Automatic annotation (TrEMBL):
InterPro entries: Ferredox_Rdtase. Its cofactor is FAD. PANTHER family: GLUTAMATE SYNTHASE 1 [NADH], CHLOROPLASTIC-LIKE (PTHR48467). Pfam families: NAD_binding_8 (PF13450). It comes from Homarus americanus (American lobster). The gene is FDXR-L1. This is NADPH:adrenodoxin oxidoreductase-like 1.
Length: 139
């Protein structure tokens, strides 16, 4: 794959070192950092004492539409950001912002590098459907 920027090179290095050195530990990758992504991360970290979660987000900052969509006059909805921040502070969690999966890194690269890849949010679902369609035409 042609790497278009330094960020991509850094991420690919992260994929290689992170997974190869701790192959016995479940390595899970979540694409998308909205509520669906964070609740998934929370459950994985809670239900498995050793699992490590890397979260990829195409925007530079996390929380998806809770940050950009939900209006400030709905503070009770935005409150979930506090819980997400606690999850993000855990040692076994890494946030990788500014990475567009499907463009900077391919879905196939993620599948090779992680035990499980979770795509969340509608845009990510589209990515998964595109991957499946591509895979189908290859056979
Ligand atoms: C204008 C607006 C107002 C809203 N107001 C309310 C409200 O008042 N109350 C309420 O309960 N809900 C509200 N919602 C709905 C709420 O924001 C969503 O239900 C919720 O954010 C969905 O969470 P999600 O994790 O599924 O998706 P998202 O929050 O959309 O998160 C998905 C994340 O995935 C990232 N992503 C997508 N594709 C890629 C890729 N290829 N590579 C890397 N990252 C990727 C996106 O950048 C995004 O950060 C509102 C939504 C909008 C649009």
């Amino acid at each position: 794959m042609m790497l278009s920027c330094g960020v991509s090179r850094l991420i690919v290095r992260h994929l290689r070192t992170g997974v190869a050195s701790t192959a016995q530990v479940p390595q899970v990758c979540i694409v998308g950092s909205g509520p669906a992504g964070f609740y998934t991360a929370q459950q994985i970290l809670k239900s498995h004492a050793a699992a490590q979660v890397d979260m990829y987000e195409k925007l530079p900052v996390p929380f998806g539409l809770v940050r950009y969509g939900v209006a400030p006059d709905h503070p009770e909805v935005k409150n979930c950001i506090n819980t997400f921040t606690q999850t993000a502070a855990k040692d076994r969690f890494t946030f990788l912002g500014n990475v567009d999966i499907g463009s900077d890194i391919t879905f196939s690269q993620l599948r090779e590098a992680y035990h499980a890849v979770v795509l969340v949010g509608m845009k990510c679902a589209e990515l998964s459907f595109r991957h499946m369609a591509l895979h189908k035409t290859e056979h």
